[in-house]
Amino acid sequence: MPPPPGAPHPSATTNGLAIASLVTGIVCLVPPLGLVLGAVALGQIKRKGQRGKGLAIAGMVLSLISTLLVAAGFATGGFKEFVDDARKVQEDVASTDSAFSLRTGDCFNQPGGTVDQQEVETIKSVDCAKPHDAEVTGAFQLTGSAYPGVPAIEKQAEERCLKISEQYSLDSWAVPENAVTFYYHPTEDSWRRVKDRTVTCAFAAEKGKLTGSLRADATTLDAGQVAYLKAMNSLDAVLVAEPEDDPETDLDANVAWAGSLEKALDGSIAQLEGHTFPGASAQPVADVVKELEKARKHWAKAAKASDADTFWTHYEPGYEALPLDLGKEARAALKLSTKAPVEPTS
């Protein structure tokens, strides 16, 4: 019923759809929706005497502009480029991790590369098949309550990370020349604030990038490959420990080393003979055993040398039986890397 004479008329309300149309137009949320909401709002405003005509029209105009821009974007490819850029940003953000989150087998890029030493908080995780700065080979925990200091940590890290990386990649022939031992260690601040005790070891690119995983252990190799590599690697570990001084200067050290080498050769021969190598690899591995036996006889005599001349007499043929490319045929049969190490230059 109409209000009694003299009574005030109720104030007109603002149409809700008009407000929704304006909001939709401003935020570009489903652009055509703003047009529909605005058109419905105009009809209700006229029929009910509500306010909000300007809001509805503004929402329709903004929605129309948004609709035209989106249509133009699809037509010219600009919208696809925008979506691709947004996706790339999202992927970059998603792949950015804390350096504390690294796990064995992870490949990553470090801001600024891995050539220079620097404090690092975040890294970018990368698929190992793609070019990357480094690959995590393992980790170990430091002990003690007081911060050991950088020199002490680095000394321990260099020794232990070398061994960890050797176990991670048993096939040293497959490790590229630009890959070097790398590690993250706690700073005094991280030691105190977050109880950081972890040294993370890795292979890192000394120059350029690494491509493909360097992992070569029981998780990626078969039993024959592992048996062969372990037998030969135990021998390599003794060879690299050769004394710096010649036997003329330190005969005792050289004789002791020759004894260690003889013992290592015995162990390698036993490991190779104790494993049944399959098919085409059996004969090449047997040929390696023969070479090791020949070398063992010379090193056994060098280990009993009473003077430098006698030591040198067996040193040369002992090394000739252990050339850098020893076992290349066996490696080929076992489907291991056949790229022999390069002769070191003086």
Descriptive notes:
- The structure is a single chain.
- The chain is α+β, with helices and mostly antiparallel strands.
- It folds into 3 domains: 58 residues, no CATH class; 110 residues, no CATH class; 111 residues.
- Helices cover 51% and strands 10% of the residues.
- The chain has 11 helices and 6 strands.
- A 6-stranded antiparallel β-sheet has the order 1-3-2-4-6-5.
- Helix 2 runs antiparallel to helix 3, helix 7 runs antiparallel to helix 8 and helix 8 packs antiparallel against helix 9.
- The longest helix has 24 residues.
- The N and C termini lie far apart (111 Å).
- The N terminus is likely disordered.
- Keywords: Membrane, Transmembrane, Transmembrane helix.
- It comes from Streptomyces roseolilacinus.
Ranges where pLDDT stays below 50 over 5 or more residues in a row are 1-10, 88-96
Overall spatial form: elongated
Distance between the termini: 111 Å
Largest sheet: 6 strands, antiparallel
Number of helices: 11
- The assigned structural class equals alpha+beta
Structural domains: how many: 3
Number of strands: 6
Mean pLDDT: 84
